[in-house]
Design brief:
3 helices; 3-stranded antiparallel β-sheet; globular; binds flavin-adenine dinucleotide; 15% helix; Pnp Oxidase, Chain A
Length: 159
């Protein structure tokens, strides 16, 4: 099976979009990721999957903390910034949640401490123990088949 077929198939799984952020000695680094899921309710655990060439990989190993910022529909530009898809460098300021860097306006900010890491193929899975959450009541940014999308209004049919 070729890589393109695998990537195309994985892209058929519609997801939200997150920015994973961490901080080492005052320097905050972010990376766009959609390989995120909830793992356990008790204890509260999540997982993110980070590619072996991503700069944030060693930073999370060092800091042992990360945040997951689930992006809102109006935050496509942030996704593009942290995926390296914009040519010009844009300064992004971070808020704090439980002392960890988070993005204002995200529909969920999830602060984590690394509880385990597993190297699998060319990615590392970081299991995060959730230490705090902040929520906003806004619509999500979506990603499907290589394109950004948004939810459409649910149509209520009255008979
Ligand atoms: P870097 O140069 O470290 O960072 C990428 C960009 O973020 C750079 O342009 C940098 O300037 C900017 N940036 C970082 N920190 C800051 C800051 N503090 N302020 C301002 N700008 C900053 N890869 C995965 O490994 N796992 C995934 O689950 C995943 N999902 C993805 C989902 C989507 C929708 C997209 C578009 C990409 C996804 N990627 C994923 C790919 C990943 O986002 C890119 O490969 C990654 O950004 C490249 O990382 P880097 O270490 O090479 O770049």
């Amino acid at each position: 099976m070729d890589d393109r077929k695998f990537r195309t198939a994985m892209g058929k799984f519609a997801t939200g979009v997150t920015v994973i952020a961490t901080e080492v000695e005052g320097d905050v680094l972010g990376m766009t990721a959609n390989a995120f899921m909830s793992v356990s309710l008790n204890p509260k655990l999540v997982v993110v999957s980070i590619g072996k060439n991503a700069k944030i990989l060693n930073k999370i190993k060092e800091s042992k903390i990360f945040t997951v910022n689930i992006l809102a529909a109006d935050q496509q530009e942030l996704s593009m910034i942290f995926a390296g898809q914009l040519k010009e460098h844009k300064k992004v300021t971070f808020d704090r949640l439980d002392g960890k860097p988070v993005l204002a306006g995200a529909l969920a900010q999830i602060a984590c401490e690394v509880s385990a890491e597993h190297v699998e193929g060319d990615h590392t899975l970081f299991i995060g123990k959730v230490t705090d959450i902040h929520l906003e009541d806004v619509e999500p940014l979506l990603f499907y088949s290589g394109k950004y999308r948004s939810l459409t209004e649910e149509k209520l049919v009255t008979l």
